[in-house]
Amino acid sequence: MSATRRKFIRDTATAAAAVSIANPLRTFANVSSTNKVNVGLIGVNGHGFNVLKYHYETGKINCAGLCDIDKNRLETRAAEVLKNYGQKPKIYSDFRKMLEDKDIDAIIVATPDHWHCLLAVYACQAGKDVYLEKPMANTIEECNIIVNAAKRYNRIVQIGQQQRSDPLWLKINRMIKEGRIGKLRKVNIWANFVYGIGGPKKPDQPVPEGVDFNFWLGPAPLRSFNPNRFHGYWRMFWDYGGGLLTDWGVHLIDMAFWAKDIISPPENILASGGNFSFKDHDHETFDTLSVIFGMDDYTITWENTSGTENGPWNKSYGLAFIGDLATILVNRTGYKLIPESTNPEAEESEMGVKEQCYLHADNFIECIKSRKTPNCPPETGRAVAIAVHSANIAVRSGAGLLLWDDKTNRFTNSEEANKYIVPEYRKPWELPLM
Questions:
Q1: 105 and 131 in contact (C-beta within 8 Å)?
Q2: Cα 335 to chain center, whole Å?
């Protein structure tokens, strides 16, 4: 990592740490004698390996292990770690063997969503701290279980909603709270991406050599292999993910929650949508979706139209924070403050930085050592995860409008919707009880 990047992380980590809260009840992790945290990665393909790179470039970890059900990807990634970082991690085809390694302090979980709950809970039980990719789980009840597991086993769990560590979003949050746009009354959010329609339809095929597809399915229903349900497009099928809403939606809607310090899921969710286009592509999650989250004193809307990169303000994704005095238009590339005609304050804008992933990883590693609460703990991840799952359920169940009661963990107006709260695991896997 360059000296410039190290300096950037060091200088901005102080600001990001402002949202961390000390937890004196937690004990120190088994950090190695080199004062570096020994980290294992479960799920080495695609973004998972990028997350490992973000952690490695903090200069504060050793790559102690890699685990995946795809032997080919596993061996390729192990060779890359050796070449790029000069380390030879242990490799595992079964995550349970990795969790038995007492020299490993922390686990990065970067598998498909349907595995998140089991892996997070097992890692906590094994005494490992966890960096858990978003959304934190594939169902509502699994989110609750992860929150309880982190508390029960006194583990540091960082959800991979990295905008919580980004100076750009910290600044936007501060501007809103300081009243720069007046009273925040509405947030419009959108994300339009081509990949949301999945891949062109293909017939089922034999399982590729070196892939343990039955293990990949894990608690999900047994089925034959199809490449569109594997690397790349798995999140477009309900058994493994929730489409664009649980992918990009978690990141962006989380920022709308943060602006009002919302820590509980919305009580009113109105959603409409379906699969209206691209019948030649393989996807179950919705290519077209509109959602309204009703909050106490303002409204959050979500829109996605998969298969296109076009969107409001000529941006494929973003948020518009709308207040009485001004609107803040923002995505990861920067922001623009646009005053109302009655507001004399000048328009302003600023470009974003590309360090959020590194800062989020750095915050996780520092919290392993300090035992402070990370920037995005499970409680934060739960609120937005339940919100997006509820929106998908509103359409899947046919209810349209759902009323959520967080105390009873149920929808009060639809028994059909309640059927989606708790997943049914395929044997021999069992839903953990927390």
A1: no
A2: 22
